[in-house]
Structure formats: structure tokens, C-alpha cells
Amino acid sequence: MTKISIGGKLYSKNYELFEIFGKVYDFIEVLIEPDFNINALVDAVSLAKKPITIHCAHQHFGFNPGNTKKFQITKKLLDNAILAAEKFNSPTIIVHPGFEEDTISSQQLKNNTIEFFKNCFDKRLVIENCPYYKTFELTKYSLSTPKDFSDIKKAVPLKLALDFSHAISSANCQAKPPVSFIEEFIKLKPCLFHLSGIEMDSQKDSHNHLFLVKNKFEYLNLIKDIQNIPPITLETKYSSPIEYHQKDIEILRKLLNQEQKKI
After folding, report:
1. Domains in the chain, please, with CATH?
2. Contacts of 65 by beta carbon, 8 Å cutoff, 6+ apart
3. pTM exceeding 0.90
4. pLDDT tens-place string over residues 7-19
């Protein structure tokens, strides 16, 4: 089995954390905030000395490809992410799907999302599954189920980033078995995974550390026999002590039958 690449996630203004993250992770996933400073980010990334994956600013910053009224702000946020991807030679730009802000049908929400990405397509785009309901709000996303991705993929050639926590919360909100739900997503051949600590019966997304939750992460058995497992971003609390991140990495490698990386 090829050695799995494990990354950590930071925001573009977490300058002081890049160097230490570079010492424990194989790559760093960076969310590009609207007011990011490209020169300051370049300096921080130079200290990490690790490959960079780009995550476009999401709904909390105004990104919503499912709302035609938000086209300009969504396009601007995506352009920022593309600029960063060019700067760091990143092969991946992760984006979130559209979510319901106005009273429209689920199909229209999905259609709007498809049209946005048709108009703004970039071969590096990877769309992430999101919770069945927006965190803390009863708001639907245009990609919460395996069928949603299949529908979008038929219309525009986006790749899939499978967020395990989002899938678990989505399954529970729909009274579906989480492991079977995840298995259906894996059949769609994700090119990247997001992993964090979450209880298996949770209906809310969580960015807890793996060792802080009661979960055996048995659903990872679904991927450990893949010949070349896609990169896995540990999407946990970035401000935690670095020892927490090291412990998560150790747990993940053991779960996937790999030895801990020497630090």
C-alpha cells in the first residue's frame, strides 16, 4: 500500500501556525479568506515547506453557487482561490455546494449550482459534500447525498471531496445507516477525504479531534484496502496544541494499518 498523505487545515491568516503544521503534516489545506494577503501567505507557506491544497471560502464568507443573486460575490471568492492555487501550484481547489437561502425547490437549488460551475469551471475544482441541513439551521445544501453528486457530475465534470463527518450527520438527519451511506459515496471515487472526530449518531457537523470522541471509526475499513488511498485532511481545531494533531495522525495511521510518520 502506498503511504497515505495526511494534511492539516488552516485559514489563510493563520500565519503563525504554518511552520509547525509543516513539521507534522504531509500537506496543508488552506482556506482562502476574502481579505487574504497573498504576500503574507507566501511567507508563511515558505516556512511550512509542504504542498498546499486550496479550499475556497465557503458559505460563512458569502459563497453560494446555488443562489443566482450571489453570483458576483461567489465568483470573486472563487477567483481568489484560483489565484492562490496558481501561486502555490495547487492541483486542487475545494468548493462547497449551494445552499438554500431563498424559498426555491431542491431541484432549482441543484440546477443553480450546476449552472454556476458550468460558467466558472476550472479543472482543479473538487466539490465537497455538506450536511443534509446547514449547521445549526434547517437549510438544505445542493450536495448532501451520493445521488446529489451523481446528478451534478452528469452535468459538469467536478470531482468529489468526501467529508466523513458531513456524511454521518447527513445520514442521521435522514434516518439512514451512516456506514452504508458513506459506502455509497466511496463508490463515486472521491479524490480527497476530510476527517474529524464525530459521534456516529450525531446530526451536527463536528471538527473535534479523533481521540476526543467515542468512535471506533470503523467506516475507515471501507477505504483501507484501496490501492492508492486519496489524501486525507484532518479537519480539526487548528488552534489545539500540536500534540493533539500528532495524536490524531498516529490514530489515523493505526486505523489504516500504517506506521506513524517519524517527526
Report:
1. 6-255 (3.20.20.150)
2. 74, 95, 97, 98, 112, 113, 116, 117, 120, 142
3. yes
4. 999 999 999 999 9
